[in-house]
Amino acid sequence: MAAWDGAPSTDHLGLLFQGNNLRTLGAEALGKLLRQNKSIRSLILEWNSLGAWEEGFSFFCQGLGANNSLQQLDLRNNQINHQGAGELAMALKQNASLQELDLRWNNIGLLGGRALLNCLHSNKTLKRLELAGNNVPSDILKAVEQAVDHNQDRQTILSETQNRTYILSKEVLSLKDEKNKQFLDLMDTIDKQREEIARSSRMSAARVSQLQEALDEQHSIMNSLKAKLQMTEAALALSEQKVHNLGELLNATKQEQTSMAEHHFTELQQQRQEGADREGKLLRDLSAASEKNLLLRNQVDELEKKCKVQQDQLFQVKQDLTNTTAELKLRAVQAEVRGCSFSRCWRQEWLLGLAEMVSAALQVDHMTQQMEASGRSMQDRIQRLEAVRAALEEELSQVKAAALSERGQAEEELIKVRNQARLEEQQRLEHLEEKLRLMTESRDEAQNCCFKQKQMVAEAQAKASQLSLQADGLRRRLEELQQDLNSKDEEKVMEVNKVKVELQEQIGHLQAERAAQDGLREKIAALERQLKALSSNHREALLDKEGEISMLLEKLRVKEANISRMREEEAQRASFLQNAIMAYVQGSPLGTHSSRK
Predict the structure, then answer these.
(1) Residue 262: left if φ>0, alpha if ψ -120 to 50, beta else—which one?
(2) Which parts form a coiled-coil structure per UniProt (predicted)?
(3) Longest pairwise C-alpha distance within the chain
(4) Measured at the alpha carbon of residue 591, what is the angle toward residues 585 and 593, in degrees to the nearest 5?
(5) Who contacts 570 (Cβ-Cβ below 8 Å, separation ≥6)?
(6) Of the candidates 157, 148, 149, the residue with the CA atom closest to the CA atom of residue 120
(7) Tell me: the pLDDT tens digits for 544-567?
(8) Checking DSSP bridges between strand 14-16 and strand 128-130, what pairing results, if any?
(9) Helix, strand, or coil (residue 42)
(10) How far apart (Å, rounded) are the C-alpha atoms in residues 318 and 290?
(11) Which of 94-98, 356-360, 479-483, 546-550 shows the lowest mean pLDDT across its residues?
């Protein structure tokens, strides 16, 4: 009972009471539960003692018979005898939901097995019945297995038949729906046909009345067409006048364009001449500067040659001094040798030696005076060369400043010429664009007038064709309705034919005028092409002029580069000369003497 008190609620699909030693009260409680509950699907009561008390087990079997939701029941090892098996057989006859029953390891015996076998003839839902370990003969077990298999086959067949019936019912319902839809569609089509028949009858009656009214309105329509034709003729006359005016305007524009083109050509020639003059002037200036540079170079070369000659002279003087000093040393040595060897004549030789030394000293003084004079002359020459170099540098700076000023003036003049040309071109282009706009507006007005006239002609043609068709239809129907009106119909047909002829003649005139307008359009297109060609030529001339200006600028840049390169070379040469002179001054005896002091 403790197990029963802690049992789960009836909302669960399975209950497990394994090994709880349930007896009479537990069996009665389970019977009540099965009688009232409709949601339990599985009940496991293994290892209990439900079959030991007949009253409690019979109450449990009554609840099982009244239950219609339980599908699996496990009663293994519950001490069920043949009487309990009879009670179970009675419950299985009433139950229609149980599919699996496990009665292994009980005491059912032969009588219980027969009772269960008999109940299977009336129970058609039980698919599995376990009777092992119950002392039931093998033939009864086989019969039970056959009965259970038969129930299983029957359940599968029933499920298949239920599925088929469900599918067939769905198909029948769909067919019924389709037949209903078809019937409704047929009814709708029948109603629509009836409505269309009634509508066509009403339309036919209305058409007959309209035809009768149209016969009366034809005369008024013909009169209105004649008035419209007169209006179109007047409009055509106005359009011809406008076309003539446009032709005159086109001729005037042609003349203006030719005059403008000649004026542009003369201006371009003048500008080219001015550019050529400026270029010649610049070339002459550059040639003069180059000649000055050549003269300066020649002067520098002459000065270099003079310096080289003086250097050679100084070198020769140095060699003479070295030779004389060497001879004096040799003579002194010889004198000493002679004094040692010839002791007798030492006084005479000493006197001669002194005389020679005095003469040598005099010669040395003379040479030093000459060297000092040559050094002073060289310093004077160096100062003169530096003055010449400064003068040359000043002349180069003046030439450079003049070239830069001339270049700036040329660039300013070029900028002014460009700005003037651009302003003039913009003004001319604006004037031409204004004229073109006026011409296009006048052309558009003429085209609109022509288009309106064409529309009026097309409307007249469409109305004439409609009238002809209506007249033919009316004639056919009036021949069937009223034979007396045949003569009147023929007269009306004749009148319509006359109107057609007149309309065709007018259409021919309109087509001729249209051809004339097409010729005028072609002339306008030719004039536009000429304008485009003139503008392209003007643009090409401007591009050529800009190319020439860029070439002149490039030449100026090259010449400036040459001048700068020449200036750098002259600076290098002057530095070389200065270094050579300083080296010569430092290497001369005067330089050494001054350094020793």
Answers:
(1) alpha
(2) 176-242, 286-320, 375-569
(3) 196
(4) 165
(5) 296, 297, 300, 392, 396
(6) 148
(7) 877 888 888 888 888 888 888 888
(8) unpaired
(9) strand
(10) 42
(11) 356-360
